[in-house]
Amino acid sequence: MLTSEATWTHPLCSNPEEGSSRFGNTRLRPIVLFGVGSGIVVEVIESCRRAGQPIAAYIHNRDVPHFLPTGLAARGLSSVDSGLRSCACICPLFTPANRLAAATEAEQLGFAFDTYLIDPTAITASDLRVGGGSFVNAGAIIGAATKLGRNVFVNRGASLGHHNEIGDFVSIGPGAILAGQVVVGPGSMIGTGAVVGPGVRIGADVVIGAGALVLRDVPAHHTALGPSARILASTRTGSDDAKSR
What we know:
Blueprint: E1 6-7, E2 12-13, E3 31-34, H1 41-51, E4 55-59, H2 82-85, E5 88-90, H3 96-108, E6 116-118, E7 123-124, E8 129-130, E9 135-136, E10 141-142, E11 147-148, E12 153-154, E13 159-160, E14 165-166, E15 171-172, E16 177-178, E17 183-184, E18 189-190, E19 195-196, E20 201-202, E21 207-208, E22 213-214, E23 223-225, E24 230-231
Parallel strand pairs: 3-4, 3-5, 6-9, 7-10, 8-11, 9-12, 10-13, 11-14, 12-15, 13-16, 14-17, 15-18, 16-19, 17-20, 18-21, 19-22, 21-23
Antiparallel strand pairs: 1-8, 2-6, 23-24
């Protein structure tokens, strides 16, 4: 089972005692990036670079091409040993279903999702709560009294208002805007540039299309597309081929 949330204190940390501030002189725990078959992995690598965060290994868990920059070597599942299991772990995959599959596999290998990563350029409230395995990318803004669940992915420049409740394995695309008091259910995906109005509740496993304007609740397992957020028939996020995307 994935670990409980923590209060933000350091770009990579698991509890309030591990770091005193964003730029504190805290010894950083090495991180393993598990699942490098998605182009988004380069964003996580850059966040680690900006934060001075050491990366112990890049684990390639699927038989698909990886997206590591030239000069970085992927390692297979057979390379996982006790030394790597002691590291922090992030799954750099944007699609919620694929991130869930990778996190489940990583846990079965002995990794614990007890830490999270926030890019140093993100602006976050002092009372932000963040679940283990989550990642907040460059330029994101997160308001006060907001809670991110476990293994949440907030992409570049997204803006989350006050009192948001973001469920486990939610993905929020670049430039998306969530107003205050928005609730997003587990496994949902908010597309690039989408806007979600104040107080809207989005159910579990929902897909909000790029650029959609959502001003009313969206039921679980549905897709909302277009400027009027037209709600389509029941669907699921992710893909059945379990590729690491």
